[in-house]
Amino acid sequence: MLPYLTKALTNLVKKPVTEKFPAGDPPKAAEGYRGRIQYDPEKCINCGMCMRVCAPQCMHRDIEKLENGDQKITFTFDLTSCTFCSMCADFCARHAITLTDDYMIVGTQPEDFLVTGTFVKKAPPPKPKFTPEQIAAMKAKAEAAKAAKAAAGGAAPKPKLTPEEIAERKAKAEAAKAAKAVAGGAAPKPKLSPEEIAERKAKAEAAKAAKAVAGGAAPKPKLSPEEIAERKAKAEAAKAAKAAASQQGES
Q1: pTM, 2 dp
Q2: Of the residues 109, 111, 219, 246, which has the maximum number of CB atoms within 10 A of its CB?
């Protein structure tokens, strides 16, 4: 009994361990606490990554197209659906979303639980349209710059040749090639006519037949279509006669 009485008397002269709230300022949340969302539209680039990673889909985006081509973009965060997981803040490349240590998320109206922010996204500048004269002038300038660069580097630009000049150069190249072959002891291969090609093939066939006869084997004669048909008929007849003879022997 005495220890309890001593404890009670000691607490009478001590400061209270509780804090006066809500009469005073609310106590500060612990370090790393994830509370009310804070959104900075000036840093947002409308990439939409926060909407992709939000599991409860507690945010909504409204896009309004303005007359000058710009876009008015409004992001709305619904704290009644938010799980305060901080995924949106972690994936925000521009750090436009942060989670504060404010845990006093109370209100009397639905709007009290919404965090909104609006910014205007500028439209890209239109591409300039060039007239045919401007395009021709730009091409001429590019060609002149290319020629000047080649001249400064010690190499002249390659001239454009006409079909006659191309044919003349090819003829000169063929003549130089023939002269080089003659000077080196090897004449260029002549181009044969169809009659010469047939004559050479006949000579090759005759040489092949002579070589086969000299080796003891006569070359196989080439049969006409009639001879081939006759040989096939004789083979079929011999086959049928052999089959009939075998059937008679079995009976």
Answers
A1: 0.46
A2: 219
Q: pLDDT tens digits for 105-127?
A: 999 999 999 999 999 999 888 88
CA dihedral 141, 145, 147, 149 (to 10 degrees): 180
DSSP tag of 192: P
Please give the single-letter amino acid code of residue 104.
M
Alpha carbons 101 and 30: distance in angstroms, whole number: 8
Please tell me whether residue 249 adopts helix, strand or coil conformation: helix
**Over the stretch 176-219, which tens digit does the pLDDT of each residue have?**
888 887 776 555 566 788 888 888 888 988 888 888 777 655 55
Rounded CA gap, 232 and 155, in Å? 76
Chain centroid to Cα 7, Å, comes to 77
Q: Secondary structure of the chain: what % helix, strand, coil (to 5)?
A: 45, 10, 45
Gap between the Cα atoms of 165 and 177, Å rounded: 18
Residue 119 · residue 44 · CB < 8 Å: yes
